[in-house]
Amino acid sequence: xxxxxxxxxxxxxxxxxxxxxxxxxxxxxxxxxxxxxxxxxxxxxxxxxxxxxxxxxxxxxxxxxxxxxxxxxxxxxxxxxxxxxxxxxxxxxxxxxxxxxxxxxxxxxxxxxxxxxxxxxxxxxxxxxxxxxxxxxxxxxxxxxxxxxxxxxxxxxxxxxxxxxxxxxxxxxxxxxxxxxxxxxxxxxxxxxxxxxxxxxxxxxxxxxxxxxxxxxxxxxxxxxxxxxxxxxxxxxxxxxxxxxxxxxxxxxxxxxxxxxxxxxxxxxxxxxxxxxxxxxxxxxxxxxxxxxxxxxxxx
Length: 300
What we know:
By secondary structure, this protein is α/β, with parallel strands linked by helices. It has helices spanning 3-32, 38-51, 61-83, 96-106, 108-117, 121-128, 142-150, 163-174, 213-223, 241-253, 261-271; strands spanning 131-136, 154-160, 182-186, 198-204, 224-234, 273-282, 285-292. The chain has a 7-stranded mixed β-sheet with strand order 3-2-1-4-5-7-6, with helices on both faces. The termini are far apart. The relative contact order is 0.10.
């Protein structure tokens, strides 16, 4: 490819980058209730209108906050890749914007769980009855806080091995109304010692490495009460090859493993989970659900 052709490709790709930035900018101005510069704001709205005149019409403030978090986190992680392509894989971000933005985006998982519960009576009952919810990946704490706010009958335990994330999570929790029902632990999920106490567990699989997954699932299984549900979150496969490669890059760069729903389902089945199924509550999210059988007491 000639340099001129290469520059044309860069120009096309840069247009996509600027489009995403324009959407994020418009969301942020709406969220902060700022008008901004009249000329710039008009052009931002023109960009949004060209994509789809109705694209933001049905987005409520909570959804806008989560979407903006996803955009901001994507940009910050992309910049980290650009500036430090040589660093070893791992979730080693200390930038509070990355941590908090990723956490804001994760709040959508609570809505996804509620969607799944709308089609599963037993899962819906678990969300409304007194019990405990395990968040196996606290991050900045926003999914944890959202779960506690959405399901007031549940107490929430969230574990995470990354101190900068938990420091931010505790600050976010202190400003919420649910601090009395939330516990944050500096702990790896594969080091969990709880036995048969949780009614529901959430596990973000893309952040779990290949070697750690077996122990992580075993410990979650032991921590669930008989009849308790595990919901494993995945990135679903994209229809285009480039999208698949980029998803794998994002996962591996963060220290995780690009698990498939089939692989997770097989591991759950081997452990003794029942009612295993996949469910997509929203793009780009895929759940693998499994339930610990009633009356089981499998030892590790």
